[in-house]
Amino acid sequence: MKTAIDSSVLIDLIVNDPKHAQRSKEALRTARLEGPLLISPIEATEICAVFENPQPLWEALETLGVTLDQISPNTISTA
Length: 79
Description:
The chain is mainly α. 58% of the residues lie in helices and 10% in strands. It is built from five helices and three strands; from the N terminus they run E-H-H-E-H-H-E-H. The protein has helices spanning 7-14, 21-34, 41-48, 55-64, 73-78, and strands at 3-4, 37-39, 66-68. It has a three-stranded parallel beta sheet with strand order 1-2-3. Helix 1 (7-14) crosses helix 2 (21-34) and helix 1 packs parallel to helix 3 (41-48). The longest helix is centred in the middle third of the chain and has 14 residues, at 21-34. The radius of gyration is 13 Å and the shape is globular.
């Protein structure tokens, strides 16, 4: 099963949030066992706002095994 990851979970991990990082890491690990991890272009845009240079974001997503999902017009219109 594919899992779409919310931007807040990834931000917790990337900035190592002391309050939420551990729980987010566990949720991500559990989701990864069930199948591919995805992030939407909208979520990626939200996370990019955290960085002056987005390259660390793309590197972190690759390390975490999260791929950028593309949204087709058909998917948008049926959502």
